Amino acid sequence: MTTIFLTLSLFFLSITRTLASYNIINYGAKPDGITDTAKPLLSAWAATCSSHQPASMYIPAGTFFVSTALFKGPCNNTNIRIFISGTLIAPSSYSATIQWLTFKYVQGVSILGGTIDGRGQAYWACKTSNRNCPSGAASIAIDESKDVLVSGLKSLNSEQFHMMIFSSQGITVQGAKISAPANSPNTDGIHIQMSSDVTITGSTIKTGDDCVSMGEGATNVWIEQVNCGPGHGISIGSLGETPNEMGVQNITVKNVIFTGTQNGVRIKTWGKPNTGFVKEVMFESLTMNNVQNPILVDQNYCPGNVDCPNKSSGIKISQVMYNNVQGSSATPVAVKFDCSPSNYCSGIGLQDIKLTYMNKPAQAYCKNAEGNASGYIVPPSCL
Ligand SMILES: *[C@@H]1O[C@H](CO)[C@@H](O)[C@H](O)[C@H]1NC(C)=O
Ligand SMILES: *[C@@H]1O[C@H](CO)[C@@H](O)[C@H](O)[C@H]1NC(C)=O
Ligand SMILES: *[C@@H]1O[C@H](CO)[C@@H](O)[C@H](O)[C@H]1NC(C)=O
Ligand SMILES: *[C@@H]1O[C@H](CO)[C@@H](O)[C@H](O)[C@H]1NC(C)=O
């Protein structure tokens, strides 16, 4: 922590000597946790964004209340750094806002450090009591943007997703610490959709839903060194709820530790016609600690089992490799491939799998799945 702080501070000092830097305090921000900082933030952003040279924006220590903020580009430079020492807090009551902090049409932006607190408690209470609630806000959204780095961000208690990456390319999230209670509804860690070249590394994600989820059009995604749990694991999907979805391709999930999660690595698709696909997926060196469904492909996904379409999934799953997956399952079936009767899963590869249930070999279940197993395989392959 101290090292990161020192590094950031030194970095900031060296930057401020040479580059334009805009401190939100100079635009009227008050670190009292009450006064709305939206205007000062956006004025400092406008100055940073209009600079024709690399520029930086500074949010000092303290607690800043922010109603909502849209950091919009395109900007006049592609080297913007936002240094955050303090904490940004969202309204404690919910509204119809669907994104709290949004970066849109930006390119070449680094967001360094900082804590953001979505204060989702009131919204979760609404959702869990089955009232008619608005859709809830993602805490931070990166929309239609390119080359964005989010480094060392701490995100707490989002209403909905903590981070949403949508229609963007070249997004890196490193050293994130994301947390919300295990029973908070739909507080996914990071959701990636219609985006390519997304990297998530060195992060800890504890949530009430997926640690990372990948929707349609997620391609060239690299996830490495993540601790996930509590939460619902790392998911591709759900896919196929809407017709004609874009495919998901070239996904790597490596060196991830799952602890007490509902799933480990899961691919979930609705049982409905579609033209989408999932291919070229590598799951490698994963540790499962008491995970309910360590390896799962579910092509009849239907949460809550209400109004299920009950059709054959049109999403074609192929070339999915599971290499070196070890640990403990919290249920007897640790490996489950429940694939589409009209689009068999094909080219599934299992290599060096060791999953136990209560210190005994777990079980594997296959339906409509084809592929190969090699190396040490426990439970024995059903492919
Ligand atoms: C970019 O620079 C021009 C000319 O200085 C200015 O008029 C414009 O507002 C700037 N654009 C942004 C997005 O700030
Ligand atoms: C797959 O994605 C990775 C980044 O995650 C990229 O480095 C690699 O070039 C991609 N492979 C192909 C074939 O596009
Ligand atoms: C889907 O199947 C479930 C369980 O088999 C059943 O209860 C439900 O009525 C079916 N839904 C439709 C739309 O047919
Ligand atoms: C098993 O692997 C071999 C060689 O990679 C491949 O030719 C074959 O199609 C695979 N079998 C299945 C059922 O996927």
TrEMBL record:
GO molecular function term, any single one: galacturan 1,4-alpha-galacturonidase activity
Q: Is Hydrolase among this UniProt entry's keywords?
A: yes
Q: Where are the transmembrane segments?
A: none
- Gene Ontology terms: biological process: carbohydrate metabolic process; cell wall organization
Q: Which Gene3D superfamilies match?
A: Single-stranded right-handed beta-helix, Pectin lyase-like
Chief subcellular site? secreted
Give the signal sequence positions: 1-20
Q: What class of enzyme is it?
A: hydrolase
Q: Which InterPro entries match?
A: Glyco_hydro_28 (IPR000743), PbH1 (IPR006626), Pectin_lyas_fold (IPR012334), Pectin_lyase_fold/virulence (IPR011050)
Where found in the cell? Secreted, Cell wall
What are the alphabetically sorted keywords of the record? Cell wall, Cell wall biogenesis/degradation, Glycosidase, Hydrolase, Secreted, Signal
Keyword Methyltransferase in the entry? The reply is no
- Under Enzyme Commission nomenclature, its number is 3.2.1.67
Under catalytic activity, the entry for this protein gives: [(1->4)-alpha-D-galacturonosyl](n) + H2O = alpha-D-galacturonate + [(1->4)-alpha-D-galacturonosyl](n-1)
Please explain the role this protein plays, according to its UniProt record. Answer: May function in depolymerizing pectin during pollen development, germination, and tube growth. Acts as an exo-polygalacturonase.
Q: Which family does it belong to?
A: Belongs to the glycosyl hydrolase 28 family.
Under PANTHER family, the record lists:
PTHR31375
Q: What is this protein identified as?
A: Exopolygalacturonase
